[in-house]
Amino acid sequence: MPDTAIASVEESQSENEAGLVFQHVARQRIKLLDAFLAPHGLTSAQVYLLNRLLQEDGRTQVELARLLGIGTVAVSGMVDRLEAADWVERRPDGKDRRTKRVFLKASATSKKHVLSEAAAQVNALSFATLSDAEVDQLLTLMRRVRGNLRDALAGEVPTLMRG
Amino acid sequence: MPDTAIASVEESQSENEAGLVFQHVARQRIKLLDAFLAPHGLTSAQVYLLNRLLQEDGRTQVELARLLGIGTVAVSGMVDRLEAADWVERRPDGKDRRTKRVFLKASATSKKHVLSEAAAQVNALSFATLSDAEVDQLLTLMRRVRGNLRDALAGEVPTLMRG
DNA sequence: GACATACCGTTCGCATCCTAATTATAAATT
DNA sequence: AATTTATAATTAGGATGCGAACGGTATGTC
To answer: Does B91 touch chain A (CB under 8 A)?
Structure first.
């Protein structure tokens, strides 16, 4: 049984395995999406943000954070990089001087097709061997898991709030 | 329609949404696992590695990378941190002077129960509202997706290798 | 034996995420 | 009006992941 017999991630046992599957799928999707986007000088996370803005421009950074399910600090850094690369632009909000709204620049809107296409291709490859019904099943179950985790994380510190 | 109406991540449309669900579940699981492990001075990724070693000690770093589905660079850094915190120890391989094998130290083996318990609890919370059959379904579909992605990534650059 | 090739681990630089703390502004309370 | 509280964005520092490039070692070929 040579070491090289470990061809790839083994389907092993118990608790850890479940966690690894979720991690692997998320990371592999990122890797694949990055490969599609590298020629355009973009990363997967940036495209999630750009695709959001393509749906609706001029969001505040707090809104973007909530929509993407990440923190405001992460958004701040990503907008920094996207702005440096001239994909987006920060503009002050007229009413609230704390907030900045993020707008797409022409370079981004002109690549609209590329961005949604990349996401669609990753999905196509991910679900290549699954029937439509199975994809529906999978996404429905995943949304339920996300809801469970959201609840678990929300109820994390309630004992402190009960003051 | 005030801004604050965006309570959390909305179930939205189309291609992006599928990608976000996978990302969210993976990240929320990490967050929850980190919360359980913080009192012990450990992180989720470190526990994935430790749990692997608890199954079988003395793996080389390349083996660990393959088993965990990450790169050798990531393993190197993690073993650095785990070694600094006295959880594990690198020992030279007797036959091959390039390789180093990673062994658990007593501080880690004594916490064996804590580590597997944390992983089990995250699973329990993730799947709280799912039946056993649904969990099986979900994991089966996720493994198939992982396989599809693995194939897609493996066949990524074949046109270059065909020389 | 000499050379090409493959492999293990590491260092470097980058992107992405986090928490905690800070600054500026707005809103609510007294 | 003054004070407290809440909110928007940022900075600082850490962990995790990646690819590329490097030095050291092993292996296969001539």
So the answer is: no
